[in-house]
C-alpha cells in the first residue's frame, strides 16, 4: 500500500523520541532498569490490546517469536548502553551498520547497492572520529546493536507471516523482559522509592516499543525486508533532532556529515520508487517482482455463528488488508450470521468465497475442533478475480467456464484457478473441462468439492464481498489468482495397485455396468472377496467401497474412484465421477502410514513448484473419505507430517467430496487424493 512508508517514518519518529526520553531517566535508573520496565510495560499493554491465542500457535510460530525477543533485547540493551556514553545521533547512525549489511546481502539492483555503500561511508566516518567526537566504547556498542538490528528485521518479518495480529510482538516483549530481568531487577526498588518515574517509563514503553514496533510489524508484512532495512536509515536524522531538542546534544561536523550520507542513501532508495509509482499508478511495493504476498489463517470452534466467523476472520486478517477471504465452514452454522461476522473483517476491495465441508484443515492444537476456518490472502503482487457458475448439475461445462471467466482479467505472469464446486451435482469432471476451455493450457486448476459433514444431503458455496455474501447450491465458485511469483501444485494419494487390471467394458458417465464383460458389481465383489449380501446393506457396502476403491490408469499415475452405491437389479456400480469406457482399473489398497505420507508428499511437490522461493502459505484439499479412513489420530498425524514438511508456513484447507487438480490436459478430477496449492 502506498501509505506503508509513512508507517515506517512514524515509527522512526516515535522510537527516537522514546530513546531521548529514556536517556533522561538513566541518572535515576540505569540502562538495564529502564529497558526492563519498558519491555514489561509494553508487554502488558499489548496483552490487553492483542489478547493473542497463544495456545493455538504452532511450534514454528513460537520459535520465531522467541528469537525475535532475543534479538530485540540484545538490540535495545546494547543501544541503551551506548546511549549512556555517546550522543544519540551518533549511536543510531553507527547502529545502522546491521540494516546496511542486510540491504547489501539482499540487494539485486545496482542503484540500491550504490546507496547502501553511501550510507556505509557515513558509518566509516564515525569510526575515523572514534575517541574524538565519538567515544570508542559507545561506537563499538552501537555497532553491536546494529548486528542485532539486522536479526530483528529478519525475525520480525517472519513473525509477521506466521503469527496473526500483534500477539507475536507481545510475547517477544515478554521474552525480552525475562532476558533483561537478571541485570535490571533493581529498577523495581528505585521506582518504589520514586513513583514519579512511572510516568516516564510508561512514555518510554509506548513511544519506544508499543507504537513503533507495531507499525514496523505491519510494514514488514507489506515491504520487502531489504527496502525496509534502508528506509530505517532515517533513524539517524530523527535521532539527531531528538537529541538536540530533548537532550541538548550538538553534533560536530564529521558526525553531521555521516548523518547526511546515511539520510541521502535513504532518499536515494525511496525517491525513484515514489516517482515510478506516481507515473504508472502501480503499488510501489510490487516493484522488481519482489512483492511480499502473505497468507493468514484463523479458526474458531464457537457454537455461535457470528462469533465464530468474526473470530476466525480477525485472526486470519491480523490488521492487514486482504484481497481474498476464503471461508470453510461446518454445516452446523447459520450461514448468514457466520458470513456477517466474516464480512466485518473484510476490506473495501476484499472478495469473499468459500463452501461447506466435511471438516476443516488448520494448524494448532485446537484446529481439529474448528467449525470454521478462514484464510486471508493479500499483499502487493497478488491479483484476485472471482466469478460464479450456476446450475452446475444441468450445465456442468458451462458452469465451469463461467467460474473461470475471471482469468481473462489477470495481468500477472503466474496464474492459477481455484474451483469450489457443489459436491453432490455429479459430473464434476465436466466442470473441469469447462474451466479448462477458457484458461491457458499451462494454468493449473485446483480446488475441492463442497461437503456436508458426510450426510450427502446438500452442500453450499459462498460468493460475495463485504457488502453481502450469497449462499448458493448447485454452483461453482471460481477464484482466478495472479501473482508476481510462481504458484506450485502438489498431488498425492498414497494408494497402491493390487492384483491384475480389469477393463471397463461398459460404462456411462459415473455408472459402471461391466468389468471384463461381467456385471461390474459381481466382478468388484469377487475381487475384494465378498458376495452380493454385502451390497444388500448400503452402509456396509459403502464402508467396504471406501476401503477398496478402484484406480484408473493415467499417464501421471492413478486416479481414484470410489463406488457410493450398488444397483442389485442391473449389477452396476454408482460413482460420483466418470469411469471412462475402455479404461484399465485396479483394486487399490493402502494403510495409515501411506495415507499420512501422501499429505506430506503433496505439500513437498507444491513447495518444489515455487522453485525455492519462500512460501506465503498453502491451501490443502483433502478427501473426506481419507479423513474417515484415518480417524482422529491419523488425521492428527497427517497434519503434523504436513507441518514438518513446510515448517512455519501458514496452512489451511478442507476435507472434500472430490478434489480438482489439473496441471495439463483437460482432465483433473480426483478422489481420495490430497491436492496442495503453494503461494510464494
How would the blueprint of this fold be written?
Elements: H1 4-24, H2 31-50, H3 59-83, H4 88-95, H5 97-106, H6 110-128, H7 136-162, H8 167-184, H9 187-193, H10 197-220, H11 225-231, H12 235-247, H13 253-280, E1 294-300, H14 305-317, E2 322-329, H15 335-343, E3 351-356, E4 360-362, E5 372-378, E6 382-390, H16 396-403, E7 414-421, H17 428-436, E8 445-449, E9 461-465, E10 468-472, E11 475-483, E12 487-492, E13 496-508, E14 511-515, E15 518-519, H18 520-528, H19 532-535, H20 538-547, E16 550-554, E17 557-561, E18 563-567, E19 572-575, E20 584-589, H21 592-608, E21 617-623, H22 624-645, E22 651-656, E23 659-662, E24 669-670, E25 674-679
Parallel strand pairs: 2-3, 7-8, 21-22
Antiparallel strand pairs: 1-5, 2-5, 3-9, 4-22, 6-11, 7-11, 8-23, 9-10, 12-25, 13-14, 13-20, 14-15, 14-19, 16-17, 16-20, 18-19, 21-25, 23-24
Helix pairs in contact: 1-10, 1-12, 2-8, 2-10, 3-7, 3-8, 4-7, 4-12, 5-6, 5-7, 5-11, 6-13, 7-10, 12-13, 14-15, 16-17, 21-22
Task: Tell me what you see in this structure.
- The protein is of the alpha+beta class.
- The chain contains 22 helices and 25 strands.
- It folds into 3 domains: about 5-290, no CATH class; about 295-490 and about 595-680, no CATH class; about 495-590, no CATH class.
- The strands form 4 sheets. Strands 13, 14, 15, 16, 17, 18, 19 and 20 form an 8-stranded antiparallel sheet that branches. Strands 1-5-2-3-9-10 form a 6-stranded mixed sheet. A 6-stranded mixed sheet has the order 6-11-7-8-23-24.
Amino acid at each position: 500500500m502506498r501509505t506503508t512508508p509513512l508507517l515506517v517514518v512514524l515509527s522512526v519518529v516515535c522510537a527516537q523520541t522514546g530513546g531521548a526520553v529514556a536517556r533522561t531517566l538513566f541518572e535515576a535508573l540505569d540502562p538495564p532498569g529502564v529497558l526492563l520496565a519498558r519491555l514489561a510495560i509494553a508487554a502488558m499493554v499489548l496483552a490487553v490490546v492483542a489478547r493473542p491465542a497463544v495456545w493455538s500457535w504452532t511450534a514454528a510460530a513460537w520459535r520465531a517469536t522467541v528469537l525475535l525477543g532475543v534479538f530485540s533485547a540484545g538490540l535495545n540493551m546494547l543501544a541503551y548502553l551506548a546511549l549512556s556514553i555517546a550522543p544519540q545521533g551518533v549511536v543510531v547512525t553507527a547502529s545502522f551498520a546491521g540494516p546496511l549489511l542486510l540491504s547489501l546481502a539482499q540487494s539485486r539492483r545496482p542503484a540500491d547497492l550504490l546507496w547502501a555503500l553511501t550510507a556505509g561511508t557515513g558509518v566509516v566516518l564515525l569510526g575515523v572520529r572514534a575517541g574524538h567526537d565519538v567515544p570508542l566504547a559507545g561506537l563499538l556498542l552501537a555497532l553491536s546493536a546494529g548486528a542485532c538490528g539486522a536479526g530483528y528485521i529478519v525475525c520480525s518479518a517472519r513473525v509477521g507471516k506466521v503469527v496473526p495480529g500483534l500477539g507475536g510482538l507481545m510475547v517477544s516483549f515478554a521474552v525480552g523482559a525475562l532476558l533483561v530481568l537478571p541485570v535490571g531487577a533493581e529498577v523495581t526498588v528505585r521506582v518504589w522509592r520514586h513513583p514519579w518515574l512511572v510516568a516516564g517509563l510508561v512514555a518510554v514503553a509506548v513511544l519506544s516499543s508499543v507504537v513503533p514496533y507495531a507499525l514496523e510489524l505491519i510494514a514488514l508484512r507489506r515491504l520487502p525486508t531489504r527496502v525496509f532495512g534502508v528506509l530505517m536509515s532515517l533513524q539517524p536524522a530523527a535521532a539527531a533532532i531528538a537529541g538536540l531538542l530533548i537532550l541538548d546534544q550538538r553534533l560536530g561536523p564529521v558526525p553531521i556529515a555521516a548523518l547526511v550520507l546515511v539520510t541521502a542513501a535513504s532518499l536515494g532508495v525511496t525517491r525513484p520508487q515514489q516517482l515510478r509509482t506516481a507515473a504508472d499508478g502501480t503499488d510501489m511495493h510490487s516493484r522488481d517482482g519482489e512483492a511480499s504476498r502473505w497468507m493468514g489463517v484463523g479458526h474458531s470452534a464457537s457454537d455461535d455463528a457470528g462469533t465464530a466467523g468474526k473470530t476466525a476472520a480477525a485472526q486470519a486478517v491480523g490488521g492487514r488488508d486482504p484481497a481474498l477471504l476464503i471461508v470453510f465452514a461446518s454445516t452446523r452454522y447459520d450461514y448468514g450470521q457466520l458470513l456477517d461476522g466474516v464480512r466485518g473483517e473484510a476490506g473495501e476491495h476484499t472478495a469473499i468465497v468459500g463452501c461447506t465441508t466435511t471438516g476443516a484443515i488448520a494448524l494448532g492444537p485446537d484446529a481439529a475442533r474448528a467449525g470454521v476456518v478462514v484464510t486471508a490472502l493479500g499483499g502487493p503482487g497478488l491479483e484476485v478475480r472471482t466469478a460464479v457458475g450456476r446450475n452446475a448439475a444441468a450445465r456442468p461445462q458451462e458452469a465451469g467456464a463461467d467460474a473461470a471467466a475471471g482469468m481473462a482479467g489477470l495481468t500477472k505472469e503466474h496464474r492459477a484457478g481455484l474451483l469450489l464446486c457443489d459436491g453432490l451435482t455429479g459430473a464434476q469432471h465436466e466442470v473441469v473441462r469447462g474451466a479448462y476451455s477458457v484458461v491457458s493450457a499451462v494454468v493449473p486448476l485446483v480446488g475441492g468439492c463442497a461437503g456436508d459433514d458426510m450426510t450427502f444431503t446438500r452442500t453450499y458455496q459462498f460468493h460475495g464481498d463485504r457488502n453481502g455474501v450469497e449462499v448458493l447450491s448447485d454452483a461453482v465458485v471460481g477464484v482466478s489468482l495472479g501473482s508476481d511469483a510462481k504458484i506450485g501444485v502438489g498431488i498425492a494419494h498414497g494408494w497402491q495397485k493390487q492384483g491384475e487390471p480389469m477393463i471397463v467394458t461398459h460404462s456411462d458417465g459415473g455408472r459402471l455396468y461391466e468389468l471384463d464383460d461381467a456385471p461390474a458389481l459381481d466382478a468388484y465383489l469377487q475381487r475384494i472377496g465378498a458376495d452380493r449380501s454385502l451390497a444388500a446393506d448400503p452402509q456396509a457396502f459403502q464402508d467396504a467401497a471406501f476401503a477398496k476403491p478402484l484406480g484408473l490408469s493415467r499417464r501421471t499415475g492413478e486416479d481414484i474412484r470410489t463406488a457410493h452405491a450398488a444397483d442389485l437389479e442391473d449389477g452396476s456400480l454408482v460413482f460420483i465421477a466418470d469411469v471412462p469406457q475402455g479404461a484399465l482399473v485396479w483394486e487399490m489398497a493402502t494403510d495409515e502410514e501411506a495415507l499420512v505420507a501422501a499429505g506430506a508428499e503433496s505439500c513437498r511437490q507444491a513447495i518444489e513448484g515455487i522453485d525455492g522461493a519462500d512460501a506465503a502459505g498453502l491451501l490443502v484439499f483433502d478427501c473426506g473419505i481419507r479423513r474417515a479412513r484415518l480417524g482422529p489420530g491419523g488425521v492428527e498425524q497427517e497434519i503434523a507430517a504436513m507441518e514438518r514438511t513446510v515448517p512455519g508456513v501458514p496452512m489451511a484447507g478442507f476435507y472434500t467430496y472430490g478434489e480438482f487438480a489439473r496441471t495439463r490436459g483437460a482432465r483433473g478430477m480426483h478422489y481420495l487424493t490430497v491436492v496442495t496449492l503453494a503461494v510464494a
